[in-house]
């Protein structure tokens, strides 16, 4: 693997693990508008899927920062794997044609 | 700007699912014929990088935060179609695993924060680069496209909310466009910064127009 790939992956992992626990917890743009304009409640109804790691916090871990850091690590690994897999699959099909 | 379940009515989210679904299908078709060997690892790296960056909410005015979206960054490095697939992958994982964005709103979220950046944003970027005709235009193109993609995403989000009868457009649009005009500045700064670094270290990764 080329050096820059490892560097960029490393930056992503470090950011997800060490920076995400310190990200702003203030409502984002859409949440702010929903709150100000009185439609935030509509999004509070039960969500369609019950995600295993809701709101980027691994359930059962009392330390919130640690719960977010682990969630970040899990997420980065999964999306990176899916991204590589997508690239490999789509490239392979071109070769067969 | 991830829309949760409950904000959109059935007609609106089904429509957006169809739009996003057809776009992703087209993106798969186009990627199969255009994805270069060098871009395979880049798809994984971009997915990881953008996912991580999306977690890093930064504070903006008025007790509000914003976060990087990354559609334009992905498209500048991967082209619009592979970038569409990378962004869609991120939104699907965020929805299923982290409850960030509702399953019914997945199509709307993929369209607003994904396709608007990766396709509309990409062609704005390309237009600016070509009209400048120089390397200087590249960073201008990146910055303008990044800002516009965020404001356009907020605009489409407002329209979807209005169609759903959740909030009138005259109420939603000024509020959404206003706050995201600020968040878009953050998006532009981050995207220009990263592309500038890549331009110095690995200019061959960028698609050439000039």
**Number of DSSP strand runs of chain B:** 2
* CATH architecture title of chain B: Orthogonal Bundle
Order of helices and strands of chain B: HHEEHHHHH
Q: Assembly state here?
A: heterodimer
Helix content percent band of chain B: over 70%
Number of DSSP-assigned strands of chain A = 0
Quick one: CATH class of chain B? Mainly Alpha
Taking Cα atoms only, what radius of gyration of chain B do you get, to the nearest Å? 16 Å
How many discrete domains of chain A? 1
The low-confidence runs of chain A, each spanning 5 or more residues with pLDDT under 50, are none
Secondary-structure-based class of chain A equals: mainly alpha
Major β-sheet annotation of chain A: none
Number of helices of chain A: 3
Shape of chain B: globular
Main sheet of chain B?
2 strands, antiparallel
Would you mind describing this structure in some detail?
The complex is a heterodimer of chains A (97) and B (210). With 97 residues, chain A is an all-alpha fold. In chain A, 60% of the residues lie in helices and 0% in strands. In chain A, helix 1 runs antiparallel to helix 3. With 210 residues, chain B is mostly helical. Chain B has a single domain, classed as Orthogonal Bundle (Arp2/3 complex 21 kDa subunit ARPC3). Helix content of chain B is 75%, strand content 3%. Chain B is built from 7 helices and 2 strands; from the N terminus they run H-H-E-E-H-H-H-H-H. The interface between A and B is large, with 63 and 68 residues.
